[in-house]
Amino acid sequence: MTERDSCAGSDFCQELAGVEHVTFHRIYSGSPPGRIIGRGSTLALLADMSPLTWGHLLLVPTAHYVSFGAVMCDHAEDVATTLKRIVPLYAASFGDPVFLEHGSTMGMEGSACVTHAHIHLLPLPSREVNALMARDGLAPTALGGLADLEQFGYDDRPYFYCGDTVEHQVYAAVQARPRQYLRSVAGRILGIPDPEWDYAVVVRKDVLMATMRETARWRLSLP
Q1: In terms of CB atoms within 10 Å, which of 21, 57, 68, 74 comes out highest?
Q2: Residues 72, 171, 222, 66, CA torsion sign
Q3: What is the pLDDT of residue 5?
Q4: Dihedral in degrees, nearest 10, Cα atoms 154, 157, 162, 163
């Protein structure tokens, strides 16, 4: 089983359902009142609550999945259509995006509610991200496209994914990596001191506000 309508342990599920007592609303206290940039029946685009830089966005499924590998099993066409609509707008505002994801599993840490699938969009060169992950000892496998992650969803295997509009890499050996590993990689590229890339250490409210003002210009509809 890859999908649940919602999960009480997932802050994303509660926030997308309109629940007020979630982490985002506790931190921002109504300013802004929300961070959803676009939403369709399958996917939503949000500003990252603790952005690493201007233009740090998250693509999330509206139903509860633990990875985009699992999302691809059911909604690969919707994801492809969504990214085709987002990328030109994103590139015009922030620069070409890299897509980063830590794909979780249904049984990770004994709870299917540990995480809610989310892809980070950041204005960084994917080659620099891949080079840094290689220096950390991770070995990539090239994918034909994002849809190829579906095998990890079917097999319920964890992974790291790094891609852009041309190349896609997946890293299968993720167990030894620390929490928020991909945020730490992006933080190193951005020159953010350790541990200020941690979403609980520095929130950067002004960066989220600037990102929301920029994306308010977009005319974005999602499938």
Answers
A1: 68
A2: positive
A3: 53
A4: -10
Token couple for 83: 């990214």
Count the Cβ atoms, other than its own, within 10 Å of residue 74: 17
What pLDDT sits at residue 173?
Answer: 72
In single-letter form, the type of residue at position 13 comes to C
Write down the pLDDT at residue 111.
43
Distance CA(117)–CA(156), nearest Å, equals: 13
Map residue 34 onto helix, strand or coil.
coil
- The angle formed by the CA atoms of residues 86, 92 and 96, to the nearest 5 degrees, is 75
| Beta bridge partner(s), residue 57 | 47, 121
Rg (CA), the chain: 16
> Could you give the CA distance from residue 220 to residue 208 in angstroms, rounded to a whole number?
18
Q: Taking the model in full, what pTM does it have?
A: 0.94
CA 61-121-175 angle, to 5 degrees, is 75
Q: Quote the strand ranges of the chain, DSSP E.
A: 36-39, 43-47, 57-61, 98-103, 119-122, 140-143, 159-163, 168-171
d(CA 12, CA 117): 9
Residues in the chain: 223
State the number of CA atoms in the 13 A half-sphere of 65 facing the CB.
31
What tokens does 48 get? 């990252």
**Residue 211 has what DSSP assignment?**
H
pLDDT tens for residues 147-160? 999 999 999 999 99
Residues in the chain where the model's pLDDT stays below 50: 1, 109-113
CA 135 – CA 84 distance, rounded (Å): 31
